Amino acid sequence: MAQDNPATESISPDASEDFLAADELDALRAERDELRDRFMRALADAENSRKRADRDRREAEQYGSTRLARDLLPVYDNLTRALDAASDETRTQASALIEGVELTLRELTNVMTKHGVTPISPAAGDQFDPQMHQAMFEAPVPGTKAGQIIQVMTQGFLLHDRLLRPAQVGVSSTPG
After folding, report:
1. Greater model confidence, 16 or 119
2. Which of 44, 62, 82, 84 has the fewest CB neighbours in a 10 Å radius?
């Protein structure tokens, strides 16, 4: 009599189909997970690109006029020097001319301020700040401490929060 051996029994066709279906299901799940991961990464990249483009756009709006502003600073300096050079006698004799130069300088200042250009105006006795000032010379001056500003040669300017041009100053080298 032949005994039934479970090891020699063949697998029923339904069981093999279930086994293949489980493998296919696992493969599909793995593919789904991979596609979901790729989708999420692409979504994150797109969001990062959008944020970067937005930041670049804001920066271009705010600082795009840097070259023009730098080119206008010598005009400001020359108008200021012209007014500083005018003596009281000249002011009396050419009052209309002086008034015109003052109005032009005031208008230039207003336009620069409107576009975010603000002056850095150190005064004698202020402490030298290498972030905002450029030392043009050092000199020992009695009654001052080392690192104090002793003379302002030209104003500096900021464009919003960025340094456009440092203020040019003379600094005391007298030990305090």
Report:
1. 119
2. 84
